[in-house]
Amino acid sequence: MIHRRELMLAAAAAGSGSIAGLTSESLSAQSEEAPKQISKEDGFRLALGGGAAKAFAHIPILEAMDDLGVKPVEIAGTSMGSILGAFYASGMSGREIRQFAVDLFTQKTQLIQKLFLTDGRTWSSLFNVVRPAIIDPLVLFETLFPPSLAERFSDLKLPMKIIATDFYTQSQVILEEGPLLPAIAASSALPMLLTPVRIDGQVLIDGGFVNPTPFDVFPDDGVATVAVDVTGSDFAERKSGLPSGLETWIGSFSITLHSLVAAKLACTRPDVLIEPPIGRFKTMEFFKIADIVKAAEPAGETFKRGLANLLENR
């Protein structure tokens, strides 16, 4: 276990270069060899919000935890936040997630080859305009996700909650047991693009419609909550021209997410809120992953300082 003072020193070392003989490089090496899970008394829970491509900004936060050699006692994720959170909870490091995601979206030839489904399934099992949406998320994610992804929630190395929306009851659903991939697919099922997912008789769609940044799904038991919100504006500057139909659809979804988070923050707030500086990127710019992650790197340092300040004052 790592204690509060040790964590504060680690965060200071990672942020400023060295303190008490520690350096960010040595901390990183230590965390790779033997990651520590901090105790619940001094620990924190982590909420990773949805935001499609902008959620790649979570990656520097995951890397920052590795640098400090600490892990949350629990993760909650919505949409893309559930995907990256599940990778991390399955045992991948932040750096491994960065490498996997950057390779996936920058090596376009390999991506196309994967989407041709060389395991014998047909192209129509992935794409079908007759379905309620074009793409089957279960087939897509099974094809693209790393083999190290846990099969079930019970196989995860860290407890996790995944947020989805029940389409017919128009309510939040928290998934935390059973097969993992359908839960991720449900949480990410953006209407018209990804087909809704049936789980236990419920028809589920993207969790962003009810809880884009799920910092309020944890029990109120004194454990600190750190939330990473990536629902900021899709537009770096005000424009006067009319948006295209696609831009209107995507932008409207982004507005909905951001408004929901703002309304929640007016009522309650996490102990630490991180908002990576990624406003100039658009929701669906997946192929700009390297730029998004680079732009979000200062948020990793913000996380380290915020966590140290939080534990110092508790």
UniProtKB/TrEMBL annotation:
User: What one GO molecular function would you report for this record?
Assistant: hydrolase activity
Q: Which UniProt keywords apply?
A: Hydrolase, Lipid degradation, Lipid metabolism
Q: Where is this motif: DGA/G?
A: 206-208
Q: Name one GO biological process term.
A: lipid catabolic process
Q: What positions does the record give for the motif labelled GXSXG?
A: 77-81
**Which residue positions are annotated as catalytic?**
S79, D206
Q: Where is the PNPLA domain?
A: 46-219
Identification of the protein by name: PNPLA domain-containing protein
Q: What organism is the protein native to?
A: Roseibium aggregatum (strain ATCC 25650 / DSM 13394 / JCM 20685 / NBRC 16684 / NCIMB 2208 / IAM 12614 / B1)
